[in-house]
Amino acid sequence: MTFVQLIDCRTSRFDEMNRLMDRWVEQTKGKRTATHDVIGKDRSDSAHFIEIVEFPSYEDAMRNSNLPETDRIFQEMVALCDETPTFTDLDVVRDEQLNVLAARAFFEAMGKMAPERIGEHLTDDYVDHDPSYPQPVQGVAGVREQYAGWRAAFDFTFRIDDQMAQEDQVCTRWTWVARHKGEFLGIPATGQDVTMQGMTWQRFRDGRICESRWLYDRAGLLEQLGVLGQ
Question: Which Pfam families match (predicted)?
């Protein structure tokens, strides 16, 4: 279970504390178990700061706190504070990246939803970057036509293998499983079961996808269809 520690402190020497944290990151390289660190400043009190440190588990946090570098930096941090910091230990019971959920919903719907519904997942000014097209596809109508072509050629589903999020962006690594049922790039339907792996980077705005960049093994797909490698 993910574990989070909140450190509440007051200081008028934040720049020094910031440099102190940089030193801790450098000194604990290859040892620390913390995976994420965020420091927030109170908008109504410029001397009030809260640091949020994330660990994979409570046990990992305890190993981190037992590092000699952690103890030394902590003593220096206390000296920079106007008063003794307070600590709150939290077991994370819910952790959802909403854009990740939106990306997952998009891939789960692909191959199942009718082309007319693809706009439910996209902004009106959506841009699609696909290496198989000479230029980006602009707008929902263009993507709807693109998607309809894939659906006409294949019965397919996406299996999500991994997802990562950063700010307004989500990267999804996926496996595409399909049956070739219609013409594709001039290749008549073969009834062949095929798979393809790829990754899609997507940018979100207000909960919808506004841009996608696709990377996938199209050559491997063509080989499975008997076009290449003969």
Answer: SnoaL
